[in-house]
Amino acid sequence: MRRFFNPRPDRGRQGARMTTWFKLTAAAFAVAASGASHAASGECLDVRLTSAGPIVTGDVDVHVDVAVTNLCRTAVQVLRWQLPSDKMSGALFRVTRDDAPVRYTGPVIKRAAPTAKDYVEIAAGATLNYRVELTGAYDFSKNGRYAIEFQSDRGTHGSGAQSMRSPTAMYLWAQGRNEKLGAADAVAETQALNAMATAAASPNVTAAAASISYTGACTSSQKSTLASAVTAATNYAVNSASYLSGTPSATPRYTSWFGAYTLARWNTAKDHFVKARNAFQSAALTLDCSCTDSGTYAYVYPTQPYKIYVCGAFWNAPMTGTDSKGGTLVHEMMHFNVIASTDDWAYGQSAALSLAKSNPTKALDNSDNHEYFAENNPVKN
Fold it and tell me: Where is the Lysine-specific metallo-endopeptidase domain (predicted)?
């Protein structure tokens, strides 16, 4: 190390102060430059994940802290469902265990197309902080090394809202977990798959559902409406499966909702609707009336076929046609892992049409695109 003689200590202190000032100024410029860089790229939101510690021992809850910061000099708008809340309402996180995907077990929701009340404004330089419990929506029952990332771009296509992603993963080591606690959903999915195999062996079944049960204090009139909605959904699924069993080609109906034609993608859509048809015709459906949210049509838990929770917007929808009761049930059926395991990348007809043009792969993974294909309103050949 080189050593220097300083004949005037006060100058040394002054130099130290100057050095500190330069460091602080450089840091300020770095922050400003970062904000300008993000503004230029259109990415203003920085998401950081932290936890109380890197090791989770025993069957305890897993909490992560989420900080969302607007790095730009202007306010940014996001959709409320892009942000964490007390109750998980979508797959906001990507979780892997020992590099293998961890399935999301929380609800997947059909929402109405976003309106002004669905947006949240994040002021320039502001940070929103959340604490989220993950074991209620992701399977943390096994021991191992978990990587957790935040990725909130579902339901944003065509909305103008900015997407949010954490730049790096946060890692946790889980030990001493009871693996039996995560087995129930797997059993339910296996039973559903077995029922579908039975249905596939009897393709001429035409009845609407093997049985319908009701939970959540459905009234008599609601039960009657739901029975009619199941019939409408069954008809939609039967018609769609029949259409896709015809000669594959770039038909207006197909390309409108699923984008550029390829035989592989056509066959994927066909597989989704054949499975949905079989489920509507022969599965035991459970319909729940407990949700009253006026901005939500319905939701399901993808690992729990075939229970569908209908909400406030459902009751105001027409029985058939665009965003109908029958179409809503088709939308929700597609979410079940045993059917199509679809997501919600876009809400509403215009956003779904745009998604099909820009990203056919995501259109085939979007429940609203399946619903609008089934409803076929306006009619396309």
Answer: 242-375
C-alpha span between 356 and 364 (Å, rounded) = 8
Number of domains in the chain: 2
pLDDT average, residue stretch 157-175: 88
**What type of residue is 254?**
Y
Q: 50: which 2 tokens?
A: 């932290």
What distances in angstroms separate CA 181 from CA 60, 86, 139, 195, 335, one per listed residue? 12, 22, 9, 24, 23
Average pLDDT, integer, range 99-108: 94
Our answer to whether residue 332 is catalytic in this structure is: yes
- Catalytic: which of 189, 332, 371, 375? 332
Q: Is the pLDDT confidence value at 267 over 80? A: yes
φ, ψ of residue 149 to 5 degrees: the values are -130, 150
- The CATH number for 237's domain is 3.40.390.10
Domain residues for the domain of 78 are: 45-178
94 forms bridges with which residues in the sheet? 149
Which is more confidently placed, 202 or 257? Answer: 257
